[in-house]
Amino acid sequence: MPQLKIAPDVQDALAAGRPVVALESTVISHGLPYPDNLEVAREMEAAVVGGGALPAIIGILGGEISVGLDDAQLERLAQAREVRKCSRRDIPIAVARGEDGATTVAGTMLVAHKAGIRLFATGGIGGVHRGSPSDVSADLLELARTPVCVVCAGAKSLLDLPATLEVLETQGVPVVGYQTAEFPAFYVPSSGLPVTVRVESAAEMATILRAQDALGYRGGSLVAVPVPAADALQPEEAEAAIAEAIRRAAAAGIAGPAVTPFLLAEIAAITNGRSVAANRALLLNNCRLAAEIAGALAG
Ligand code: PSU
Ligand code: MN
What we know:
Layout: E1 5-6, H1 8-15, E2 20-23, H2 26-29, H3 36-50, E3 54-61, E4 64-67, H4 71-79, E5 83-86, H5 91-97, E6 100-103, H6 105-115, E7 119-121, E8 128-129, E9 132-136, H7 138-145, E10 149-152, H8 161-170, E11 175-178, E12 197-199, H9 202-214, E13 221-224, H10 235-252, H11 259-270, H12 274-298
Parallel strand pairs: 1-4, 2-3, 2-7, 5-6, 7-10, 10-13, 11-12, 11-13
Antiparallel strand pairs: 3-4, 3-6, 8-9
């Protein structure tokens, strides 16, 4: 991989062993509408700071893999004009062509690990798609192979959640419920599906990460945190919106990496923006917790 361009403040924090939290850029460029996405990105950075860590948004600018973005770079990715959605396979393509790229969970994990960042906060991970079981997100395999802890709000039920959890089990990825015994379903706090283990605090999660490191364990881990109750969708509303969005995607012939961004935009329209409010609330919540875990790990 070419040299990473690590922002000076991030470099200093890493060198001093201070807590740093990586943030992905696909959720900004492809997951939320402009200009809300720009505001949410800044709020996410502030939430990480509020939790006691330094944020590092990861993205690709003109073929340069960047860890920690300035305002102009963030704005460029948020406008999402000709920004390649970069999972693992896409990063070298964006680099070779000198393109702008937004990193997914998989892409961000890969870069975060190269930079020496152990914690990463996002909204939802990719998984096995409902009705197309061969569409398995590279996020799941990256979680298996890269030692980064990803704090998320579970995954949307537009994915096949039981199949997604089965793949994580097969791949050896622990799914840790934060103050819950059930895997959260993104817009709604629970899916009825069990997690591997439940923890009550950031400090308790840090003990699991320390044990992974002490064992030389090469894989990652997933911390799943329910969306804050005040901004959660009602399960019926979420299900109906997701089902309708899936119908629209099928009718429009959307496939491959375009599926998730298409569905997110449709769900936002169907719920009159309530899905975006839930998305924002859970992102900020996850940022704060990831920062606290990073702090507990550093302390
Ligand atoms: N889920 C969301 N918002 C997102 C994504 C997932 O609620 O923006 C993005 C993440 O970047 C995730 C990616 O890594 O979609 C998964 O895409 P795919 O299924 O194509 O691997
Ligand atoms: Mn896919």
